[in-house]
TrEMBL record:
InterPro entries linked: ATPase_NBD, Gcp-like_dom, T6A_TsaB
NCBIfam families per UniProt: T6A_YeaZ
GO biological process, one term: tRNA threonylcarbamoyladenosine modification
Pfam families: TsaD (PF00814)
Organism from which the protein derives: Flavimobilis marinus
Domain Gcp-like as annotated: residue spans: 33-134
Protein name per the record: tRNA threonylcarbamoyladenosine biosynthesis protein TsaB
Amino acid sequence: MPVLALDTSGAVAAAIVADDGAALAQAAVTEPRRQAEELGPMIADLLARAGLGPRDLSRVVVGTGPAPFTGLRVGLVTARTFALAAGLPVAGVCSLDVLAQEAAAPTGTRVLVATDARRREIYWRSYVVDAEGRAIPDGEPSVGTAAAVAAELDLAGTVVVGAGGVLYREELTAAGALVRDAPVTPDPVVLARLAARALADGAELPVQPLYLRRPDAQVPNARKRATA
């Protein structure tokens, strides 16, 4: 049965994906400020285009970031709410893993996924492409400046993808990295395929958001009262 896959770590993107990994319907909105208002209607439109109802699906798959708090939360809440209403299980996949797989690099290539974390930082994770073309993570998702990543890793010959790579191209290319202009946002079809492969291998895919740091917008601390 088909799955609904969605990701809001960058753009708002969703797809209905068949068992064989083919997209039955797919859409994306690149304006991040419209995430909350666009995602629900987008899902309804995708189902209509695919000629399906919520209960015709087998699962919901959602990108878990890392990403800034507000945008990522929209996708996670939508996925959980939709799944609960339709009685479907939910699976989570790191959004960086999707971009790494989209890079489609040759066997043995080192890949660095770098997305925009704001505050002049990037969310990043490094990978090595195995003999089957799979991007295998080499470490956990992290956040830091591009300069710090360049100092920590040997980036000579490393393929860099993601909006953070494009944004901080100068620092990364100076360290020997090969920065690509695309992909910059996770493809929900690839997201669904990664989840299907992992589940077939017996992996657990918890829907655990990867925020990595506190929200950009926070409620200020209450003022201290003056004492005599």
